[in-house]
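Holo model, beta-D-glucopyranose. Inputs:
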Amino acid sequence: MKDLTALISQMTLEEKAGLCTGASSWTTTPIERLNIPEMLVSDGPHGVRRIPDVNAMGATSLPATCFPTASCLASTWDVDLIRQMGVALAEECIALNVDVLLGPGVNMKRSPLGGRNFEYFSEDPFLAGELAAAFIESIQSRGVGVSLKHFAANNQEFQRFVMNAVVDERTLHEIYLPAFEKAVKRAQPWTVMCAYNKLNGDYCSENQPLLTDILKKDWGFEGLVVSDWGAVHDRVKSLKAGLDWEMPGPKPSRVQAVVEAVKNGELDEAVLDEAVRRILRIVFKAAETPKGGSFDHTSHHALAHKIALDGMVLLKNNGLLPLKSPQHIAVIGRSAETAHFQGGGSSHINPTIVSQPFKELSKQAPDAELTYAEGYPDGENFNQTLIDQAVETARMADVALVFIALPASIESEGYDRQDMNLTLQQEALIKAVCAVQPNTVVVLNNGSPVAVGNWFDGAAAVLEAWMMGQAGAGAIADLLFGKVNPSGKLAETFPLRLEDTPAYLNWPGEAGEVRYGEGVYIGYRYYDARKIPVLFPFGYGLSYTTYEYSNLLVSAKDITDQEGVSVFVDVTNTGSYAGTETVQLYVHDQKSSLARPPKELKGFARVTLQPGETKTVNIKLDFRSFAFYHPGYKQWITEDGAFDILIGASSADIRQQTTLHLRSTQKLPSLLNRESTIRSWIEDPIGSKVFSPFFKLMQENMASTFGSGNEDQETIGMDMMGFLLEMPLMGILHFQEKILPQSPETIVDMLLVQVAKG
Ligand code: BGC
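Output:
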């Protein structure tokens, strides 16, 4: 590695400021005289969007494999498969001269309406973090960097450039940061991209607590922070906050602003040097990987096919699937001829080739007669003739396969969805087809949950095929004909109604502010807590076989938070198809000082089983599996107590459970202060010892201050003790001031000193 300090000392102020802003839409500023090369970045995340002209933002990109988008990827729950995808993406980056791929996106799916949900993994931070870390490790293992985005709380598109996300500290740490945290600590992405929005009052691009205190200091991030494209408002402020590289460029005014700020003393040059050092480190790292050559289109298409296979989720099946050699198949819906396989915006890939469902079905059923009907027009128009034609086609067949894709313009970067509905035509089409053809399978192509309206009951089977990537069509055929057994499980809840969703009353915000009022209760955490029925729960997915869970064991029943524990469970394939099951482990804290969701995902494992086969799954739990973030202590803490270990086939299908006891080894300071209530004093372990003799005396004085308890209850109709518990100690002492030997402040401070001594 180069001596960066020496190199920086040779750079002029102008060169340093210049390096901190892009030279084009996609490149860093090279400095020839010092042999500092340029570095090129490209979107991401589920393919390489390499635009040949580095000054163009939205031109057609070079052909690259369009893998399934993150919703589908996450539904595989398969870190090994994601690693394979990472390696393939790195190979394509190398062939297309790309140093850094702009992805993955790990923001939480706060509402099903989020426009970019298709680009994000999950409503669960643990799952998103595990997948992102694998994604990043695998790409970077080949000498290509990534940009982990969008940091942080970019959970909607509505007013994304200006919206202030108001998120309390605990919610931020428990829900919106952990996927980033795990990815950074475990995989050290070369770059992190800040979000457009404001977080708690400051633009993410100018947010010192976020970019410097949390990301760089607490998590030890070693790479560079890049702005989202156009996210910087005040360049000097952003540099001070920890934003190293502004994109896109060129932007002479920004370079000038930095130069002037250093000259007039507003910006410490050491801050600029640190940004330069971070950028140079990554630029030189990127240059170590020789670029060029080609990539294997065929094997990458095959890998895209495999990922789509594993990510598609069978939502309903009355036994019709897998198809049993139908002679006449009606294939309905324009997305059967023209696959819908990705979303809109910066992630849009120019695919190397696209498989079409009708063709793939024909290949797998060479002896059957396949007839096609368009079913619905492009966009959201209504056309009864197309429905009538589809009904006639379905009536004549043994089976109808209805391909329903949300209109392409509905799911995109830049704006949110307005509802979860299919188009009116699509709903009417499915209903009409189901009315004449009981053997109807609905195949959905969308990036986030859709409402199933009044057609769902009529369908014999429903397959969620997602934005399935360029090879998804073959995967649909494999699953419908039973060549492969479905194994995908939802990484997000499908709610029954939009009105049931956690953020419903706080979405998408108004007057420039969106309040995350549901707190830590997003996704299944909310539906569980409120006992709200959902259409399909988090972790749900059907198979052509059945699995039985047995013999749950934990390596120890009494543990400390440092020891961790191994959980073992046997899974048996009790059906007649080979298959893969994803076992999910949720933890329930029986009692905690702050309210916690009824259960939280803390581990998962995939297991492939032949019919009749049993395998033991092992999942490890650690400190964080039991901890929660306490805003009082400003850290993750554990508390002594009982924790239920729940093993599920989904979040709503718990098959095995046991309880273990945890002992916290943390020595936490007391949170008592001058404002603490009597209840807090009594409940604090050290405080109660120090306080109880004093409290006795106080209670004796109470009668003279407030009258005796019984009388009071009659006189003012209240439980005096209940009333006092909620009063600050200081407040009560002020009522008793005339009989106290010292001032209330002195007394409370003396007690606090004793508490501090332990
Ligand atoms: C998006 C980023 C993307 C960047 C560059 C922005 O609009 O939010 O995700 O990487 O553009 O295309």
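The pocket of beta-D-glucopyranose is lined by residues 43, 102, 149, 228-229, 346 (CB under 6 Å). DSSP finds 24 helices and 27 strands in the chain.
Archived with the compound record.
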